[in-house]
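Thread: Newbie trying to understand structure tokens

Hi all, I'm a second-year student working on a class project, and my supervisor (Dr. K.) asked me to get a predicted structure for one chain before our next meeting. I've only ever worked with sequences, so writing a 3D structure as a token string is new to me. If someone could post the tokens and maybe explain what I'm looking at, I'd be very grateful. Here's the chain:
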Amino acid sequence: MALSPSAGITILQENIPQMIFLDINMPGVSGFEVLAYLRREPRLMQVPVVICG
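---
Reply by user tm_fold:
Sure, no problem. This is what the structure looks like when written as tokens:
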């Protein structure tokens, strides 16, 4: 669990989760920007993402 987009990306650099629950309404960085990062990252592009609003 990460409480900010930057903390989440740091965790994802070291771990590949089975599923990601992504809040779209995060402060600072948009959840859509994080989703774009996830889909560009080869290690993470196949991980299912559940988007929460």
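A couple of things are worth pointing out once you decode it. The first strand starts at residue 20 and ends at 23. The mean pLDDT is 89. Feel free to ask follow-ups in this thread.
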